[in-house]
Structures are given as structure tokens and as C-alpha cells.
């Protein structure tokens, strides 16, 4: 079969270079992917540079139909339907989740390469059964060994390909598991061919003899059993049910299997490939240990302050010995010796600060900072994470804080990182940050960066909308200190000018916050802001904070943001799997579409009345930014008492939700028409929701039952329209079980690409097999080894065989990422879902 690499002079078989072709093909695909990702980075950098010069960002939001279709039906699309992040469960066991179509195509290509090259390198037409089995065990064993470098590289925390290719650790971990399964399958084929040949030549009794008596066979069997056990214990139900046990057992089995394989390949050239694999693994482990010691050993040890918060959540402030530099979306691994010396878990960093001030946005460093960091000076980096108490490590951590007298403890810790953070959002004019529960840690890091870089004029972001879905109002205290710093930043209050001109067409950052309380036991009065959640009331007038009851309609939120977006738009989600799937579906639905007009029919609940009231009160009475409003003072002033009623206290209690309807002898209905008519006649003014508030006074929708009132016209009309006779409940959107035409097209394209790839591979097989037959006719095949003396495998007179293992080091599960980035593997402690980042240029 063409050129053969020579043996080492001791009689072992030469190593066939054809076996390495799959490795070279994968390397070529990675090179193409690197070029593609580099082009995307250059485009984002150019877009950010142009935006910082003050160019109209409308020019930067354009896309083409091909890119939109590619994202909708291929890059962002799950394999089937809309389910990707939400895992399948059977009897409460985690059974895994569906991959993306792109991941399936890559996986099928990888599996196809391995299958094809096993077929190609075996002469299936040869009549000699012993030679045929020899070729099969030779191909399967060599191919298993050639896959081991990718196995180790894809499992490493310090994998350089993560940053070079912009692929998340979750995607590499997904491929790591499949590479391990392929290696284990090749090892089983290798062993089966060897034993079948021995049984054919010498009988089954001889097979039992060599398995228990010869070191070559003993080591090979130990390696294969170790790899197979790794495959079984790394299955999703076992891995998620017993994570810490899985982690330690996984590493122990990998070490055992590699040692056994090393002795199995003694004096064979394939041992050099295994040596390269072990060097990669050793470099990753040594690098992790070195970084861990460097980060945490200085003049002062790394410490963690753990504070118990409502909702079984702990805030952990980790003060490391040396200064770190974090990017938004990055995570770290936290070790707590008091809870377990060999246990570490990943947590997304919600907030970072340097120096004595634990919360200091946009702080600039002096030139001596690097020297201080080098010698371990007094300057430290404090990283804040939020940890949801679940099982194991996180449960013990929360219990220690709750059992203390002050609800807070301080302990020694070790921090390893940072990792992740492969998605930069600085080139996007509009950000939609969506979080569910403890997933708020991820968008907080981006908010921290945006307000700082906006003031320094280093970002294209002009508009940010934060949507947080949380169970109870008490949970808003999780981010109390963070939000106080953000809402008090100059970027949200003072205009930022560049050379005397408005920076980026907008002098201030446009930030809006929507909070959604999902606990059904909460009443309307409970989810109106109270002194227990002061940050919701400390926002400046330019930052609207709205509180709603129930879950949001993600599709409506996204369409609204798309209609008002500035420049290119990015959507990031971190939360439960169901939330991630809803956001992914909504992003796919708006790809390449025009803005949807929602003005013909309006439905709203009481939370929307709060928003309308706030807008009217602010624009008409509190902050009259438009001089034209002065002309309508006489017409609109009678409404001031009505609009101020909703949030005022009476007798120490909040006023009933529809008290504004009765205030001042029900003057709202009497004067709203005149105020709206006057405002309509003025230049550059809009009539905001007066008709809707009047209609709500008649029907009074019940917010606790998610009732709404329907209008036959827009909310922005002059007079109120007749509401429906009875409040109607808004049905929740249900997904159809049928696939859309676009989804069918996407699946068809994916299948077509796969069929084409398999066709090309089949052509290669046909060509190689024809060449193989011609070669065997012209020259005799190489002699098989002395099976009598060496059992068909040989220590010095046999061809190499290399059973390999499944995963080596999959200590990590998720951090977060619609890049769509979403996390297939949920971290054992921190997140209930994954991060998704999606680009939404119109």
C-alpha cells in the first residue's frame, strides 16, 4: 500500500502512513476553521473601529440573505425541532441533550473518516483468513493510537485551540467523549481480530493461555478494560448523578490505561505517538499546577469570604494573592481545602475589582502594577461569584455560611483560571442580555465591562436591555452591590463627548432593565419595588426598571429590540435549558426578517400599566426634555395626581393597583382625551399609553392570573377604545410538532452535505481498493509474524496494535456560551443552564 515507514530494526512491522490520513484531514479542517474565525474577528474589529469613529451604526447592521439562512437553519439550529439546551430525562436521570446540526455534521465526518480508513487498509478479498485478521487488527490498533493526541488535547483546560478557533470548551468536551468512544471501539476491534486469529490458528485454549500468561496480552487487556469502563462511567446519567466520583475515577482509570498501553506498545514505533500524547497531557497538568501556584502564593494567601443570601445562594468573594485580568464571560475553578482538597468546580465570575475597593468600575492601573503583581505586592484582585446550593461541594459550602453566627465565613481557597470568555461583544451596538435565576452572573460581567468601556470610548455598544427572570423578589438582593455601582456610573448619567461632538450619536448609554417574578404565591403588592430591594429604586431617570409578574414572551422581547436596535445586535442567555432553547428559537425566527409592526392590536397586563404610567409621569411631569410639552401644561396637569398615585404610599401601605382610576374623582377618563389631543398637535411628541390606562380602569385585569385587556387600536391613540367585556387570559405560546419549511430545508442541506461527504469518501475507498487489488496481484503481501512464538502480536516481531481509551481528563463541565454558545454540560454547582451568544445583524 504505497510507502511504508521502516521498523526499528527489531522485526516489528512498519507503520503505515495511510493510517495517519484521518489525523491530517482533521488538521486541515481545523486550519480552515481558524481562517474562517480569523476573518470573523477581523470583521468585528473593523466594525468596532468604525463605530468608535462616530459612523452611523445603521450601516453596520446590514446582513445578506445567505448569512441569515445559514444561521437560522445550520449554525444555530438543533438537530431536530427546537430542543438543544434542555436535557432529556428518564426517571429523573440526565440522559443528555440534542447537539446542533453543525456538530452532527462534524461528528459524522469524523466517524466516517475512521470507518473508511479501516475499510481501505484491509484487503477483504484475500483468501487467507489469518492475513485478513492481521490487517484488521493492524489498522484498528494503529488508528486507535493515532487518535490519542486529539483525545487529550480536547480535554485540557488550557487547550490553545479554544482561543485560536473560538470554540467553547463544551464543544471540545463533546468531541472528547466521542473521540474516546471511537478509540475504545477501535481497541475492541483490534482485540477481537487478534483473538479470532489466535483461536483460528491454535484453538481457544491457547487464547486463554496467552491472555493470562504473556505480558503483551495482559497489558493490552488491562488497557482495553480500563477504556471500556471509562466509556460506561462517562455516560450522561452516571456522570451527572455522581460527578465527583466520576471525576476522580475517570482520572485514575485514564492513568491506569495509559500505563498499560505504554507497556503493550513496548519497542514499537506506535509508542512514540503515545509518548507525544502523554507529553500533551503532562504539559496541561503542569501548566495548571504552575498557574495555580502562581496565582495563589504571594505575600498573602488567597482567601474566600462566603456570605449566605436568600434562595439558597451564597456569594463568594475570592481575594487572590496576585492581580488577575478577567474578560466578561470568563470563569474560574474554585478549590476550598476545608470542603475537599481535591475537589474543584467552575463558577462564572460575576464581578471583578482590583485594590482595596472591592467594587470599583473602570479603575485604571499605574505603571507599577505589573511590578507589584510580579513580586506579590499588596494589590489583589477580588472576584465575586454567586453559587446556588445543590449537592456535594456547593451544599456543604452554603451550610457552613448559614451555620455561622453572622451568616458569613472566611476561609482559605485556591482559584484556577481564568478560562473561557471567547466571545467579545464590544463590536455590537445593541445587547440583549437574558438571564434566568443564578444565571445572572454572566450578564453582570458584561454590564460591568460595558459601562466602563463606554466611558473610555472603547466600545460600539450604545443600547443594553437586561431581562432577568427570577423566582422571588428576595432574590434581587443577590446583585444589590453590583447594581448600585452600575446604576451610579457616569456612563448612565453624564454625557460622554468626543472632541466636542456626541460620542456614537448617543451621549449616554441606553440601559433598560426588565425583571420578571415567576412565583405564583407572590401578590401584586409584593412584586412592586419595596425598600427591601433598593437598587430597583436607585436607578437614574434614564434607566427604566420595570417589574413584571410571570415569564416573558422571548419572541416579543426580541422583536421589540430588533425594531429599535442600534447597529449590530448580540443576544446572550444564561439560565435553564428551556430558557436557552426559547431564546435560540426566537433568534432563528428573526434572522433576515423585517421589523414586525405590533401597533394594530395591543394586549397588556398590570405590569405594563406600571410601565405606561412611569413613562407618562416621567415625560410629562418629571423630566420635560421637550419644550413643546410646556404648551400642554393646562391640558395635562389635571392628570398628575392620577399618574403619581400608583407608587405612593397611603397609611404606610402601597395603594391598590387601580387606585389611579379613582383618584381626584376619577379625573383620568375626563382629562386623558384633552391631554392626548394637545400632545398630538405639538412637534416631536408622542401620545404614550393614555388610552390603555383608561381602558384598564374599566376591565381591571388581574395580574396574579395573567389576565390582559385587549384593545382594537394601538396603545398610542388619542382616546381610549372600548375594552373587551371580560379580561381575557393570554394563551402561552405553544410550539408546533411540525417542522417549518426552513427547518426542513436546513435538515435537507445538512443531509445533502453529509451524503456528498460520504460520496467523496466512498470514491476514495473505491480508488484505494482498486489500487490495493492491483498491488496484491503484482507483489506478494508481507509475511505475517510468527504467531507460534509471539501469539500474532509480537513483542519484537509483530505489527503494532494500540487499544486506546476514552476520556482522559474531563474534569470540566460548563461555562458558560447562542454563538451560538450554549453549554451542553451543566456545571455541577453554579449554572442551571448555559450561555448563548447570537449575532443579530438585520
Automatic annotation (TrEMBL):
Q: Name one GO biological process term.
A: copper ion import
Transmembrane residue ranges: 20-40, 102-126, 216-235, 247-265, 745-768
Could you tell me which residue ranges the FAD-binding FR-type domain spans?
A: 296-425
Topological type in the membrane: Multi-pass membrane protein
Identify the keywords attached in UniProt to this record, alphabetized: Cell membrane, Electron transport, Ion transport, Membrane, Oxidoreductase, Transmembrane, Transmembrane helix, Transport
What is the annotated localization of this protein?
A: Cell membrane
Does NAD appear among the keywords? no
Q: Which reaction does it catalyse?
A: 2 a Fe(II)-siderophore + NADP(+) + H(+) = 2 a Fe(III)-siderophore + NADPH
What's a Gene Ontology MF term here?
ferric-chelate reductase (NADPH) activity
Compositional bias segments (type: Polar residues): 778-799
Q: What is this protein called?
A: ferric-chelate reductase (NADPH)
Native organism: Penicillium antarcticum
